[in-house]
Each structure stands twice: as C-alpha cells, then as structure tokens.
Predict the 3D structure of the following.
Amino acid sequence: MGIVIAVISGKGGVGKTTATGNLGLGIAMNGKKCIVVDFDVGQRNLDMILGLENRVVYDMVHVMDEEVALSQAVIKSKSNENFFFLAASQTKDKSVLKSSKVKKLILNLKEQYEYVLLDSPAGIESGFEHTIEFADAAIIVVNPEVSSIRDADRAIGILDSKSHKVKEGGEVAKYLIINRIIANMVQKGEMLSSKDILDILNIKLLGKIPEDKRVIDASNQGRPIILDNTSEAGNAYKRISNRMCGKSVEMKDIEIDSDGFLRKLAGIFK
Amino acid sequence: MILDWFKGKKSAIVAKDRLTIAIMADRTSTSYPFMDKMKGEIVDVVRKYVDIRAINITKEEQDNLEALSIDIEFNKN
C-alpha cells in the first residue's frame, strides 16, 4: 500500500503544480514508484509542466467512469522509469468528481504505486475537497506573501474538517513548503521569513525553495527544473524529495543571501 | 541601518502582525464555507410561498454543539 499526498495551496499561482511535478519526479529519482495525478479538472496544467501534453489520450475521469482501465490512462515518463502521470479531464465540468468514484480511484492507485501525489485545484471548492478527502498527508505550498498565507490557513482548516482520516478519528499529516523566497528581501526585513510563516501557520516545515527565474524557462520547455543540476530551485526540490523518501537532509538556509549579507559581514572584519 | 530607524517598521513585521490578526479572525469564523450556497437554496424554497425582504443566517457555537439561526423577514400581505 502506497501513501497518498495531496498538494494544496489555497491561493492559486504559488507554484503548486510545479511543486507536484518536480517532487513526483524527485521521488521517482529515489527509486520509488511514483504517480502524479492532476485533480484540477477543467484546468489541466501538470501535463505541460511535465512536457507530456501530447501524450494524453485518456484522463482520470475516463478511469473513474470505468470507460478505460487505469493502465490505459496512465502515462509513463520517458525520463524516469519509476515516474507516471495521470491527467485531469479538460472538457467535462468539475461536478464530475463524486466521492465514491474518487475513493475507488485512489485505492486503486495506492495498490500500484508507492507514492501517489495529487495536484489539487486552487481555492477551497468541491474539487479541492475531493483531492484532500482520501489523502494520508498534505503538502501546503505557500509564497512568503500575505494573501497566500491567509488562504493557506483557510485550506488547512478545511483539510482538518473534511479529511476522511480525521473523520475516522485519525490525523492527516501536514507539511509546509515555502516557495519563491528572495534571500536579500528577507535579510532587509521586506519579506516574511520562514520562521514568521511557521509561527503563523503552526505546521511542520518540509522545505524552502528560492525564487529562481529558470523555473519559467523549465516550464516553457516542459522539462521539470529538478533535472537542471545547476538550478537552485531544482536542487531545493531534490532535497525535499529526498526528505519525502525518508532521507535525512539538512535544512539549507536559503534565506541568507550568500553573496550579499554574509560577504558584507565578512568584509567588515577584514 | 540607522536610516531604517526613521523609516518606521519593516514591512515583514507589519505583514506578520496583520496576518496574525486576520487569521485569528478567520479561524473563529461565524460562517461555513457552504453558507452562501445554502442561503441561496433556502431563498429559492421560501420565495415559492412568500415575498422575502431579507434573510440572515448565523452560526452559533456552544460547547461541542453548533447551531444555525435563520431569520427571514417578509412583507405583510
């Protein structure tokens, strides 16, 4: 039995889909069989991030409606043999998701994959609720910015009330990823630090990702940033995926601008 | 650095203070996420019988119980 992890955010545009794709691939790079599922019905995007948009024939709604078998709809990555993808439906409306069908699909996925990552739609509507309902754990992606953090707190609240695990008296594990950190702004006190954000949201930190312009270049090409060894964001995704696979990886302090603050400080003592 | 003293509070501190207050208010919300939709549906039903002037739904909490108070005003026939 695998583990099901919902990737959620509250607010849109914080890098949730990018995170899902990169972490999924990073987990597969650890030798674990991993599938990423796009739950953003009507706004399919994970296929673009992964560069698999031309290979989508069937989507998760076809599987849920039993029009095709799961194996027919799943797309196998060319870059990693452990990495798989299931697309969201683009044409049908969001109400196609039914709790019983979602549950069946997720149980099916859990049996076949070690890690199942669900890319949730933004917002806190029904699509979001279906994504979190049967998840074992959730990753909340935020930007160090007020609206993103406030919306994330709302999403966490709903996660706690709608999760199947919580309803059964259990607990759904929650982890935070802070994306798009700009070190020199944090140093100048112009951006919330990870400590500030953790104080406010009160959940465990899974990782920090620096702002990196190359993320856009990577999504232009449909080649996940984690494959770029020279990218800071890519390396941050690698550290996080290693942590998700049970490796102990030190939390790198990306909030200190390596060629700003520290060097200036060192300069004083020269 | 000394210049910063005159510029007032750093914006990250302002952000943290504002967020802390906003989130505290959100968490003790007197509403449910489905409130607007439910309100709309109640209006649709009641409107079949009377002419609604206003509708007000509030969530109330006591110990481990939650209750909804629904006040509907309508014009005298």
In short: The longest strand of chain A covers residues 173-181. The beta strands of chain A are 3-8, 34-38, 75-76, 83-86, 115-119, 137-142, 173-181, 204-210.
